[in-house]
Model the fold of this input.
Amino acid sequence: MAVSSLTGIANRHDFDTPFTNEYDKNQTAATIVTPTSGKLLAVKGIYINTEGNSGYIRVYFGTSGNTIHTIYAAATPASGYVPIVISGARNEVIKLTSTVGDDNNYFIHINYKEE
Done:
């Protein structure tokens, strides 16, 4: 059995669209990605990085509440690319909640495909 690197795994997962944004304020259930009507969002990887040292950043599906990825700012490391494969339900948005504090910038990158 061969073990793939994180890069190798990430390269095998096809995605159509990346979402990227930088925030400097806390967000509470903010919708960040909305699928085309009748489609579902299939997340193929996510990267989150923060300069904060307390609180958390959580990205999740809006209707079900299923977590896509959460990082805790006090953890080491508080960033990194995670190659994952997770899909929401049809018409389900991706939301963001963060508690790292205002003026503690953070960056989010999500690779996803509409299916």
Observations:
- The two ends are 31 Å apart (CA to CA).
